[in-house]
Amino acid sequence: MGQDSGKAAGAVRATPVSRAMETIRALREELAALRGDRSVAVVGVGLRAPGGIEDLDGYWSALVSGTDAVRPIPQARRAPFGEAWDEVPHRGGFLDEVLEFDGPFFGVAPREGRSLDPQHRMLLEVVWEALDDAGIPAGRAAAAATGLYVGITGQDYREWMREGPDSYWATGNGHCFAAGRLAHTLGLTGPAMAVDTACSSSLVAVHLARQALRSGECDIAVAGGVNLVLSPHGTALAARTGALSPDGVCRPFDARANGFTRSEGCGIVVLKRLADAVRDGDRVHAVIHGSAVNHDGRASGFTAPNVLAQTRLVERALAEAGLGPADIGHVEAHGTGTPLGDPIEVEALAAALGRPGGAGAPVLLGSAKANLGHTESAAGVLGLIKAMLSLRHRAVPPVPHFTTLNPRIDLSGTGLRVPTELEPWPAGAGAYAGVSSFGMSGTNAHVVLGAPEPDPAPGAAVPVAGFEVSARTPAALRSYAGRLAARLAGIKDEEYAAFAYTVTHGRTPLAARIRVEASDRHRAAAALAAVAEGLAPPEVREVAADAAPGFADLPRRVVDLPAYPWERRRYAPFDAEHPPAG
Question: What's the whole-model pTM score?
Answer without folding.
Answer: 0.92
